[in-house]
Design a protein that fits this description.
A 6-stranded antiparallel sheet has the order 4-3-2-1-5-6, with helices on one face. Helix content is 12%, strand content 38%. It is mostly beta strands and 82 residues long.
């Protein structure tokens, strides 16, 4: 799956993703970019960072907060290995 395909999927649904964090541990997340899940105002304390083509920022529906991961670290999308 291309990054653009994942972004489109995130805009349309909640996606179960798994990836390897920078510290080497595995992380599972229910992620989305669907507008109805996103906060109506900017999250307090969130610092704007320089954008990277490798990083994907998403809303974690379980933690109710913004999270990011490196696209190439994905290991599973909706139960399918990548």
């Amino acid at each position: 799956m291309e990054k653009s395909e994942l972004i489109q999927l995130l805009h349309n649904s909640v996606v179960d993703i798994e990836f390897v964090k920078k510290d080497g541990t595995n992380r599972k997340m229910k992620a989305t970019l669907k507008p109805e899940y996103l906060p109506s105002v900017e999250t307090p304390g969130r610092v704007a960072r320089a954008k990277s083509d490798e990083v994907v920022s998403v809303w974690d529906t379980e933690a109710e907060g913004w999270r990011s991961f490196i696209f190439s670290s994905l290991t599973n999308i909706n139960g399918v290995s990548v």
